Amino acid sequence: MGKDLNNSKPETSLQFIDQLQALIETIGNNGSVQCILCNVHILQYTVLAVALAYLYWKLFHQPYDLFMDFTELGFEDVDNPENIRNNTSRRNAINEMRRRKKNRKLPPAYPNGWYAVLESKVLKVGQAREMYALGNNFVVWRGSSGCAYVADAYCPHIGAHLGVGGEVRGECIQCPFHSWAFDGKSDGKLVSIPYSDKLPEFVKIKMWKTFETDGFIFIWNHAESLDPTWHPDEIPEINLNTWSYRGRSEMRVACHIQEIPENGADPAHLNVLHSDLVLCGDNPKESFFSWNFIKHVWKANWTPNTDDPNRRHEAIVKVNHHIMLFGWLPCLKINVDIHQTGPGIVALHFNTFLGKAVFIQTVTPIEPLLQRVVHHFYSSSWIIHPLAKLIIDGEAKQIARDIRIWNRKSYMHKPNLTKEDQTIKQFRRWFSQFYSEPKNSNLVELTSEPNYFCTNDSNANKLTF
Question: Is the pLDDT of residue 80 over 70?
Fold first, then answer.
């Protein structure tokens, strides 16, 4: 008679269990094996604790940090085979599309005002950095006193770049080539040549007037080299560290600088470009999700500061925002007071039921049609860090929608405005105070085609072509 295989399975299973129990008893009686298992458990708990600590730090302490290049927004058609042929690189294709823009008459590229050349936190005492802005190469260093200095980058001796290998000695920047030293406190005066007893008195480096506040190092730029008539506003909550730094975003924008602040005087675009929920991203038309039942609703009013004659350089935007559910239920109302200070500094003050906060926006021309836009976000402790990071990310997505337009639009010297667009006309009249060239040259002819990829920028384009 054949063997019943089904009846043999329980017997085999019981034998396996008995063998497993015997093995466990053997391990239990072996001290070295117990030690190994104990160490394995300790390692597992250690890895888990480190992972949880890292996750906690990332959520509740690590500042938000975002970089976005202008080539990421508005140039999606570049990858179309009709635009790239014969192994033409994406870089050349984008430059070609930029050249097609009808930017023939433009205001001066670098209006008079204060511009952020570097963020304070990246320049430690005794450090020197190279930067590129306003069409110039700069060296930025922080002396032993903590004071920041900005000068033209090239040594007047033979032309070495002071920001590349240069060393800080007290308040001086020392050339990496022959160790000539220039004093930041003495307006760039040459103070030392190690191999010469006689110093030529006429040799110096060009120093730029600096002002450090609100987390940025600013320099003063004026077409006629006039002294500053105003300074950036100082926000006590930032400078006294009573508010927490939550993070930053940095973006490149391929347009004239005037286009960016002009956005604040154009309330009509808000409920067109920014009505879709921020979760839809920077291009809602291509979003995977549809959130048509939730909309952002905006109302804004732009006015120049005419109350104080000493603050003609300031404009104020009052923004009222709420979210509309199902087309009839408003919620999450937020009021924002925006202060535009000069051509390149904006402070966006929030006052919500969760607490107060501020975005500091700086716009710095790198080249005539390439801007560096940096946002810092500070808030009271009532706004928890994960929420603050979501706010920064949401703001970045909203401005990315604008950048998609700015990158491809053409500056219009004489736009066709309706009655409802009159604030744009008022803005241009206000902004013209930052142009000091004679009236007949207030608009410059763009006669040469610039390369919109800045190879000298220290915050270099992160895309690889």
Answer: no
CA gyration radius, the chain: 30
Decide yes or no: CATH 2.60.40.1180 for domain 113-221: no
**Model pLDDT for residues 393-437, shown as the tens digit of each residue:** 999 999 999 999 999 999 998 889 999 999 999 999 999 999 986
**Distance of CA 332 to CAs 104, 117, 317, 322, 355, Å?**
44, 36, 20, 5, 13
Closest CA to 453 of 374, 367, 373: 367
**In the chain, which segments carry CATH 3.90.380.10?**
62-79+87-110+241-435
* Second-level CATH architecture of 62-79+87-110+241-435: Alpha-Beta Complex (3.90)
Confidence tier at 37 by pLDDT (50, 70, 90): low
Helix, coil or strand: residue 163: coil
CA–CA distance, 225 with 108 (Å, rounded to integer): 15
Q: Which amino acid is at 417?
A: L
Phi-psi region of 241 (alpha: psi -120 to 50; beta: other; left: phi over 0): left
> E strands within 259-417?
294-304, 314-325, 329-341, 345-352, 355-367, 370-379
Q: How would residue 317 be classed by pLDDT, with cut points 50, 70 and 90?
A: very high
- Alpha carbon separation from 449 to 74, 95, 104, 237, 353 (Å, rounded): 20, 9, 10, 44, 50
Q: Which two tokens stand for residue 137?
A: 């190469």
The distance in angstroms from the start CA to the end CA of the chain is 78
